[in-house]
Amino acid sequence: MKFGGTSVADAEAMNRVTAIVRKQLETHPNDPPPAVVVSAMSKVTDRLIETARLAGLGEGEQATTLVQDLLDRHVAVASALVPGEVSEPLLAKLGDEFTHLMLFVRALAEAGDVPPRSHDEIVAMGELASSRIVAEAFAARQIPAVWVDSREVLVTDAEHMAALPDMAATCDRAQRLIAPERTAGRVPVMGGFIGATETGVTTTLGRGGSDYSAAIFGACLDVDEIQIWTDVDGMLTADPRVVSSPRLVPQLSFLEASELAYFGAKVLHPSTILPAVAKNIPVRILNSRRPEIAGTMITANGREHDGLTALACKRGVTVVDITSTRMLMAHGFLRRLFEVFERFKTPVDVVTTSEVSVSVTVDNPRRLDDIVHNLRSFADVNIEPDMAIVCVVGENLRGDTALFGRAVTSLKRIPLRLVSQAASRRNITFVLRDSDVEGAMNCLHGEFFTGQ
């Protein structure tokens, strides 16, 4: 059971989490207790990232003030959840850890540099603190619980800020450190998003990585179901911030969910499905504010229905056009081209090709200047920022050829930069100006979902 930032935002939210876990225990008394993974409290990671930024600028006083504010917030929540003298060890531990963080941030500010390794150590504090509080809140309400440091379980490589898990090593540790607690009837409570290298250096999986952590732990423990508790009723037919009245999708396939998550559906981290697919474990998305709602179930086969499943959009995309007359009849050009993106560890989302040009989209421009410089050694390059991807997803795209035509026709008044249909014929991606996203999403939603 993974609970996101809004699900553990304050004492009231954590009380709801306690009630949800208690009900799970009461309704499944013969099953092992659930393993619980929590995100940092809402907005805490943003504040920690800002702390790291200020430290990098040498603004030690401002950075430590932010850390003190976060300590005060966590102490207030912990005090509201855990009564009297029982809270003293928890408050002392929180005080020690945040004080250590203040000293660390001040030292970084004096150096005027926050390398990725130090950045991970700063932002990891959110999950470490929230998981400690939740574990103690459970215990104070007679739910047998134990706090587990995720960094001792989740083994990753050393790619800080976007680490990849070592599944074999992680599963070995999960079986040694988590499984016995469940066998003994205790609920292990862990922070998501964070891990460590084999040598114990703190790492993070990237923003939104708590979903991924939960799926990794779930796969390692061979659970029956992975539950992602958030602040919406489940996967929706479109982003409610873009389309005013999206509908709940009750069930979809692993592959559909992967496409939607990768192309911008905020409910799920793009990597969440991977460990679940490997073990064929259903993933359920639920609303911690309305736990009575059935939510969305993600399984291998999805559901039988007509039409499409959902839409997603990814904004802030850059189109890179690579053109070279030397491409004509030349083997090895694509290999050389994509080696540049590999060298700078920048994935591409959409690829289209013609006889003499290739167009790709990237959503992380951090290394774009280096990429363009290297590409220009053998091709002409043009970049176009402020673009977006709109993705139409549905298993039925493979069987109903009319759906592609309907999707394209519904966007006839919107200029399309690129159009691509995957080989799996499970999605259609449109690349267009970011300013046209709302219009495109509403046109598509009106065509396929409104009135159904």
SSE layout and pairing:
Layout: E1 2-3, H1 11-27, E2 36-38, H2 44-56, H3 60-81, H4 88-111, H5 116-123, H6 125-140, E3 145-147, H7 167-177, H8 179-183, E4 187-191, E5 194-196, E6 202-204, H9 209-220, E7 226-230, E8 251-253, H10 254-262, H11 273-279, E9 283-287, E10 296-299, E11 310-323, H12 333-343, E12 351-353, E13 357-362, H13 368-375, E14 380-393, H14 402-410, E15 418-421, E16 427-433, H15 437-448
Parallel strand pairs: 1-2, 1-7, 2-4, 3-4, 7-9, 8-10
Antiparallel strand pairs: 5-6, 9-10, 11-13, 11-14, 12-13, 14-16, 15-16
CATH C-level name of the largest domain: Alpha Beta
Our measurement of the CA-to-CA distance between the termini, rounded to an integer number of angstroms, reads 32 Å
Q: Low-confidence segments, ≥5 residues, pLDDT <50?
A: none
Structural class by sheet pairing and helices = alpha/beta
Number of distinct helices: 15
CATH H-tier superfamily of the largest domain: Acetylglutamate kinase-like
Query: Any guess at the CATH architecture of the largest domain?
Result: 3-Layer(aba) Sandwich
* CATH topological fold name of the largest domain: Carbamate kinase
Oligomeric assembly: single chain
Shape: globular
**Share of helical residues:** 40-55%
Q: How many beta strands in the DSSP annotation? A: 16
**Main pleated sheet:** 8 strands, mixed
